[in-house]
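Quick review question:
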């Protein structure tokens, strides 16, 4: 293990990790070319965006107020439950109900038996594992 550490340290020292001056000057030139606008220009751009957004919002609010009806009488009448005709009153006799008992217990009983059998198998398996 010490041999590997020694070789790794020797290889790391042999690697040249300094940046040549030409590359440094190219990086500096690229950063200077992407210079930010002066603070006054940024402030003007920001205030223009704020002004445009405010005027747009105000215009949208005026448009919504102008398009919405001002009187409740202008709204169309929509039918409600009291306006629906009572069809039940037209029936002259009671509807015959034909009810049958649903038998759904057999599949549930079979499922319960299957579950109990699975639990018993699992209990036996755990008992065997503990005894081992």
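Suggested answer, residue by residue:
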């Amino acid at each position: 293990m010490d041999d590997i550490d020694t070789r790794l340290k020797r290889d790391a020292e042999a690697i040249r990790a300094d940046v040549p001056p030409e590359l440094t000057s190219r990086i500096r030139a690229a950063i200077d070319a992407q210079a930010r606008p002066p603070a006054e220009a940024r402030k003007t751009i920001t205030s223009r965006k704020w002004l445009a957004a405010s005027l747009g919002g105000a215009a949208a609010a005026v448009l919504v107020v102008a398009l919405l009806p001002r009187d409740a009488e202008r709204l169309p009448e929509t039918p409600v439950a009291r306006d629906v005709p009572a069809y039940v009153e037209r029936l002259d006799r009671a509807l015959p109900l034909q009810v049958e008992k649903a038998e759904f217990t057999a599949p549930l009983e079979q499922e319960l038996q299957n579950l109990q059998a699975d639990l018993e198998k699992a209990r036996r398996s755990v008992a065997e594992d503990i005894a081992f």
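Why it works: The chain has a mean pLDDT of 78. The CA atoms of residues 72 and 78 lie 13 Å apart.
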